[in-house]
Amino acid sequence: MATVTLTSENHDETVKDGIALIDFWAGWCVPCQRFAPIYEESSEQHEEVTFAKVDTEDQQELAMRYGVTSIPTLVAYRDGIPVFQQAGALPQAALEDLITQIQGLDMDEVRKTYAEAQAQQS
């Protein structure tokens, strides 16, 4: 599966179902350039996962929404719930391990914990 360009307009639809990984990047960022082929290769191996990319120069509002201050930053969603966020390029093995961990999540427990956290913020 090819990566999709994520914008403020298609964000919610992109992350609402299944697993979605979001790579925040910029063209001038050397670590981003090194991570790009790793991310692309994983996208070809995992057709069940949505691989999205956010150009932080073009989508500054979206980057601010996530509090991205260092790139690349990787964010992961499962069924519309954010389950991971980390700055820094991952090696291929770590990215594959992350995908496996996300696939193995107990989503009933994740939903419960997420709902509790949302309630505390309100």
From TrEMBL:
List each copy of the Thioredoxin domain by range. Answer: 1-104
Entries under Pfam families matching the protein:
Thioredoxin
Sites annotated Deprotonates C-terminal active site Cys: D23
The molecular function GO annotations come to: protein-disulfide reductase activity
GO CC entries: cytosol
Give me the disulphide-bonded residues.
C29-C32
Q: Which Gene3D superfamilies match?
A: Glutaredoxin
Site description Contributes to redox potential value, residues in chain? V30, P31
Q: Which residues form the active site?
A: C29 (nucleophile), C32 (nucleophile)
Question: Which keywords has UniProt assigned to this entry?
Answer: Disulfide bond, Electron transport, Redox-active center, Transport
List the transmembrane segments. Answer: none
InterPro entries associated with the record = Thioredoxin, Thioredoxin-like_sf, Thioredoxin_CS, Thioredoxin_domain
The family database entries (PANTHER family) matched by this protein are listed as: GEO12009P1 (PTHR45663), THIOREDOXIN 2 (PTHR45663:SF40)
- What family does the Swiss-Prot or TrEMBL record give for this protein? Belongs to the thioredoxin family.
Q: Which NCBIfam families match?
A: thioredoxin (TIGR01068)
The protein here is known as Thioredoxin
Q: Say which species the protein is native to.
A: Brachybacterium endophyticum
Its gene is trxA
